Amino acid sequence: MTEQLDLNLLRVFDALLQDGSVTAASERLHLSIPATSRALGRLRRAMNDPILVRAGRGMAPTPFALRTAPRVRSLLDEAAALISADREVRISDLKRTFTIRINDGVAATLATAAVEATAAVAPGVILRFVNEGNESIEALRDGSVDLDISAGDVAAPDIRTAVLYRERMVGIVRADSSLGRNRRPTLAQLCGHPHVSASRRGRARGPLDDALDAVGLQRHIAAVVPTFAVAALLVSSSHYVGLVPQRLAEQHGRSFGIRWFPIAADLPEIELRLLWHARLDADPAQRWLRDTILDALRLE
């Protein structure tokens, strides 16, 4: 007979997948090691899968467990929201990990403000930032990502969004570059230098190229790198020109050893948005986190 799967077993499953250890999961759940081990046995029978298997000195999740983990996390989030929707949450006592998907250009300017604002009132909260592997909203739906911070909007009825801020791309050069001393280099001057393009998808062409085409100019792309941070590092040690978000250039230009300047073209603004799934609208803890991030950016 298949063993009944209750909410407590799902909590054990979630802890085991997060920690990869019966001992660590027992500590997280405030259970004895034998009780956690028995719960793992019940999970294995109920799910008809080993869940965790020996891998050297540790344990590794099975493919089934990895596929199932986001759905379990989503179910636990919904259960928590259902129970706490009409109750006050003591943020100072909150112990929870929130997973936030974000690109490196935004993380460099937003993460510090978000972490400091969160830690000031909720020291038990962990913000886990993960890179954009893809922009699929399924990660929000299945609970593997709590919040997504990205450019543009998403047209999906179950995804909520809020505008964080808008900004433009600016040009960067090495701090001692003669081009950087010109407060606003012309497009022709920009085309006199090789460029480095930042694109996770490996694209060399962008809005600047459309603006150059309109006036009969063309730039030479010498390198394409996956992130804005790598672009800034490459520019700081070369004679290349790069484009990065203005906030990144303003806040970290000196530490990167670069100088920034506005582009003499009408480039589109980047609109950064906060995205979350509708099922978490009523979750007081997540609502607090969203408000905290929005307020932290307003105060910058």
Strand content: 15-25%
Mean pLDDT: 86
Low-confidence stretches: none
Report on the biggest sheet.
Answer: 5 strands, mixed
The percentage helix is 40-55%
- Counted beta strands: 12
Instruction: Give the ordered list of helices and strands.
Output: HHHEEHEHEHEEEHHEHEHEHEEH
Number of helices: 12
Tell me about this structure.
The protein is α/β, with parallel strands linked by helices and 300 residues long. It has helices spanning 7-19, 22-29, 33-47, 63-84, 104-121, 138-141, 178-181, 187-190, 207-214, 228-236, 246-256, 284-298, and strands at 52-55, 58-61, 96-102, 125-130, 147-151, 159-167, 169-174, 195-198, 221-225, 241-245, 258-261, 270-277. The strands form 3 sheets. It has a 5-stranded mixed beta sheet with strand order 4-3-5-12-6, covered by helices on one side. Strands 9-8-10-7-11 form a 5-stranded mixed beta sheet. Strand 1 and strand 2 (58-61) form a beta hairpin. It is elongated. The model has no long low-confidence stretch (mean pLDDT 86).
Considering the chains and any ligands shown, give keywords for the structure.
elongated; single chain; alpha/beta; 12 helices; five-stranded mixed β-sheet; 300 residues
Please provide a brief summary of the model.
The protein is of the alpha/beta class and 300 residues long. It is 44% helix and 22% strand.
Topology (elements, then pairings):
Elements: H1 7-19, H2 22-29, H3 33-47, E1 52-55, E2 58-61, H4 63-84, E3 96-102, H5 104-121, E4 125-130, H6 138-141, E5 147-151, E6 159-167, E7 169-174, H7 178-181, H8 187-190, E8 195-198, H9 207-214, E9 221-225, H10 228-236, E10 241-245, H11 246-256, E11 258-261, E12 270-277, H12 284-298
Parallel strand pairs: 3-4, 3-5, 8-9, 8-10
Antiparallel strand pairs: 1-2, 5-12, 6-12, 7-10, 7-11
Helix pairs in contact: 1-2, 1-3, 1-4, 2-3, 5-11, 5-12
